[in-house]
Amino acid sequence: MIRDLGLGLRLAVGGGRISGQALLRLAMTTLGVAMAVTVLLTAASVVNVVDAQQQREAGQVPVTEPTSGVDPLYHLSWFVDAGEEYVQTIVVAPTGDDSPVPPGLDRLPEPGEIVASPAAAEFLTSPEGQSARARIDGTVVGEIAKAGLAMADDLLVYVGATPEELRTADHVDTVYAFGAERSGLELNVTAAALVAPLAVVLLLPLLVFVTTASRMGAAQRERRLAALRLMGVSTRQVRRIAAAESLLGAVAGLVLGGALFAALRPLLGRVELFGLRFFAEDVVPPVVAAVVIAVLVPALAVGAAVFGLRHVVVEPLGVVRQGQARRRRMGWRWVLAGLGAALMVATLFVKERSNSDLVGLILAAGSGLLLISVAALLPWAVEKLVARLHGGSPAWQLAIRRLQLEGGTASRVVSGLVVVLAGAILVQTLVAAASTEEPQGSQWQPTPAVAAELGVPGDRVEEARRLLADTAEDVDVHHLTDASLATADGASTIVRIGDCAALATLAQLDSCADGDVFVVGVDGESHVEHYAGEPMRFVEYTAEEPQYGPTWTVPGDAVAVPEERASRFAAGSILATPAALGGIALPSGLETLTVTAGGDRAAAYHAVAAAISPLKWDVTMTPGPNVFEEKRIDDVIATMKGLLLTASLFVLAVAALSLLLLSIEQIVARRRPLAALSASGVPVSVLARSALWQNAVPVVVGVVLAVVAGLAVTLPTLRYIGLDLTVDLGLLAVVCGAAVVAVLVTTALSLPLLRQATRLEALRSE
User: Fold this and answer.
1) How far is CA 373 from the centre of its chain?
2) Of 133, 526, 541, 660, which sits most exposed with the smallest number of CB within 10 A?
């Protein structure tokens, strides 16, 4: 057995006239296996990446249960909205020497000191982070280690403070330790529903490429095996030798794939995917998965070569192919397609945007099965079509006859291209739907528009207004008080109290005077009849039980404001001027300062952030509607389109290369019949057009299946994530055109070999 394997390895790089083809087959097999191994190792590493991330997140959970002998740590989470990014700021103040230290820190920062994550330190020194830097006052004295970060690009800072500053602050936790038990590895089901079809799209063409490359030079290999049979080699030894020939390329591809994965790991830590950046050292596949990949991928290449001999009888005096037509087994193909379709249809009976984990898993399984079934059904569809085609030009007849005799191989190779097209339709439609999705709620804006909203404690409103008065930008500041109202039936709503100028920042009011009340509609309905004349009680929800205050009745002459004429944040709320309350003493509510600006709202937002920096975490600040939202969405969409383009080009190139290898293999295997046709007077142009039709027919059939499968996968996926289906005819034309271009390019690249094969010298034999 060892001698047989050794002979096969020597034949894989043998000399003589076959050395060029043997080396090409070796190179292509090595390349295909290497790419497949690299992709699979990267995909298998996702489990370890998620597991490591969740372990770090669990270790960062504050424990607020009192522990004897531990001095508590005052811990305040404060999110600083810098417009284009959010900086999570954790303010800490120890109460003693034994106060716990958060993970990732070697010590607690002193008052005036900042410990920042690498991404936060870089952001705070950038022009985009100047407003956040103004609000987070202090000196950066250290860097948060990996144990304190969930992702490599986390914008996280720890700020030191005194116990006196935090003891009376709102939303402060007393922490005695850090760390919580994990419930186990938790994967995002929504992400799985989107990743599953993409994994099929990425891997299936690679596997097709591996099998196609491993079968290159089949005719020459069979003649060599016949010569070995003449020398006394048994049939069983022939199969071992054939396996060893493919084993060399498979092992070389395995080594190269491992080296590529190791080389790409550091780069993965620099790539940002949808605003997330992972730690490169976490990209490590589990040992079991790595072993399975190391065994299965080379076994696929070897198995494809040996499987190709199933209908070949290698005898000492030649090779005999079993010409009996066998009926294609369709049972398992229809089971895949039916099961995938049934799973996808089942998701249509669930409420839209249900976000159910079960629905996400069904969607992931159904989309993957449906895409695989496209590749499985394509050979059958091509056979059924070409069996009914007759007549036509000589080139057409030559191509159709060839497909009638052996259309399965071409269809299997084209299936990789078809799956790419179906996946491209899915992802491109998702991107188009996300980029054209209208923001939820009303888009009404006052004039001048809102640049920022500040949530300020009642005792610091005047100080905040004084600080804002010194803002260099031309802004107007309006004061609003928000309170909760509870109806007799237990429902609740929000009342926003301010003068007419302040209320005008929330809704378009035709007329307003002190004492007026307005009710903003919601979901296309007016709520005036629901609230007017009904006594309601002010209520606070800050304690464990609701704290009820005085009763107030909405006047019967309250004015209804349509939802589309109000800010989306005011939908369903009551707008009241101070006199309408009749001197009722309000419970403590949320004081809001709304800042409007007539010029550059982004510049005004940054100026306001710098102005109120002395108030630190006592003030919450958010940008006005659409100040930065459009740029954030545009950045995400641009990232998605860039990744999609890169992945599509890569996978499309792999699929086209498989088609090229098939064309080369067919020309080499049929060089004597092609030379005979040329000698009989058939022009080379006719043979070239025949090769074109031979590739084009499976591709056309595949494009039809790809469009159907792509839309079948896209519709339930869009419905699951809550986007409207928009069929982009231009997109369909582009992806279908890509398939046509792939056929034209592969045909053009095979023409030099076709011209060489049709020379009269190809008819000579020894």
Assistant:
1) 23
2) 541
